[in-house]
Amino acid sequence: MIERTLAPGVTLRLLGTSKFKTSMLAVTFLEPLREETAALNALLPKVLRRGTQKHPDLESISAGLDELYGMNLEPIVRKKGEVQCLGFWASVLDDAFVPGQSNILEEAASLLGEMVLHPAGTGEAFLPEYVDSEKANLIDKIRGEINDKLQYALSRLRSQMCQGEAYGVNRYGSEESAQAITGEALYQRYRTLLETAPVYLYYCGSAEPERVERAFRAAFADLPQTPRQPMPQTQALAKPQGALRRFSDRLDVTQGKLILGFRLGGGVRSLEATAPVMVLHALYGGSTNSKLFLNVRERLSLCYFASASLGLSKGIMTVYSGVKFEDFQKAEEEILAQLEACRQGEITQAELESARRTVAGSLRTTLDSQGKLEEYWLNRFVTGTAYTPEDLAKAAESVTLQQVVTSAQSIQLDSIYTLRGEED
């Protein structure tokens, strides 16, 4: 991985590889996640994708992409800890597979820059029909989150567990804030982002670093040369603030959802701290050989599913499960009992080795996917770390039983959320 600073607050990371037949390019603006700006930020890439000065509508954009061997260019909004990441990623045929002399890298980067810097409109406002159309789509997306009951339950746990913390804000914002968006407010937010937000540029492909840098410098030459804000930071609480909290909703569902939120003892960023927590996660609830899967789901049949997920930069672990309404209490007790077993070192050598292999294998499969690599390096950029997937895989393979136990002992239960049926 090579890193170049193109301007203050504008960083380009290049991953040179001839492993793929395509090149991946991305541009990401990094903003603190805030309730008042989340919906505006989420709407921006969608509106920008509708048209540019040279390609003023979707039909024209599609024709331009076809000329670049069917290049794919998509808007994307992500949440990394308490950082809202918005922008575009593009996948285009790598120059090494284009017959003859090719400028496909330069043309792809140019189109990416055009979409960010030269939107369709008057130059002082977006086209109202694009804003109205994409605003309606955003509102529908926010409303539609309730249709995926597991994701809805996870979102509800995060928002209530992290009340008063930016992490509790939805990456798309709220329906109310989306409804309130005007074209004027959206364009003002766009100008503010262009002038103040840190910018992360990414390339993965076979081109020489100097050529990639030239292509991105030319494509983003019109980016305002203004002082940019420092990288947004994620604030991580080391432990729960007060007694255990319980939250519950009732909906028309036939399967209950039980979600437990834990604090990990603070944010986890360094290589030395990350590897043990990832191995613990795999051992406890992050794989089909985990204690939650083999005991709570298989042996005791208390859950339809039981898994865990990590929010490392925020220092949070979430255990999520689908349960029968009458089994909420039993499932909760057994989920906590399996964590206590980890704290007490009740872990076999086979369990430890399986968890280490799971983590290392998952990290190494990252090297086979451009999408996963882009996501991995964005995480590293947001957290200010630079270790490679292979570095982390090797560290995971060396994690000891005592390191896993120590990680488990630092975990504290913060909140419990249940989604119950209306008649339960």
Model description:
- The chain has 15 helices and eleven strands.
- It has a six-stranded mixed β-sheet with strand order 1-2-6-3-5-4, sandwiched between helices.
- It is an alpha+beta fold and 424 residues long.
- Helix 9 (271-284) packs across helix 15 (401-409).
- The protein has helices at 35-48, 58-67, 104-117, 128-144, 149-161, 175-179, 183-196, 209-219, 271-284, 291-299, 328-343, 349-365, 370-383, 389-397, 401-409, and strands spanning 2-7, 10-16, 22-32, 72-80, 83-93, 199-205, 245-251, 256-263, 305-311, 316-323, 412-421.
- The chain is 44% helix and 21% strand.
- Strand 4 and strand 5 form a beta hairpin.
How are the SSEs ordered, and which strands pair?
Elements: E1 2-7, E2 10-16, E3 22-32, H1 35-48, H2 58-67, E4 72-80, E5 83-93, H3 104-117, H4 128-144, H5 149-161, H6 175-179, H7 183-196, E6 199-205, H8 209-219, E7 245-251, E8 256-263, H9 271-284, H10 291-299, E9 305-311, E10 316-323, H11 328-343, H12 349-365, H13 370-383, H14 389-397, H15 401-409, E11 412-421
Parallel strand pairs: 2-6, 7-11
Antiparallel strand pairs: 1-2, 3-5, 3-6, 4-5, 8-10, 8-11, 9-10
Which tags fit this structure?
424 residues, 15 helices, 11 strands, 44% helix
Mean pLDDT: 96
Reading the helices and strands in chain order gives EEEHHEEHHHHHEHEEHHEEHHHHHE
- Mind telling me the C-alpha Rg? 23 Å
Q: How large is the count of helical segments?
A: 15
Order of the strands making up the biggest sheet: 1-2-6-3-5-4
Structural class, from helix and strand content? alpha+beta
Low-pLDDT segments, ≥5 res: none
Secondary structure: helix percent: 40-55%
Quick one: biggest sheet?
6 strands, mixed
Principal-axes shape call: globular
The end-to-end distance, rounded to whole angstroms, is 54 Å
Strand content: 15-25%
Strand segment tally: 11
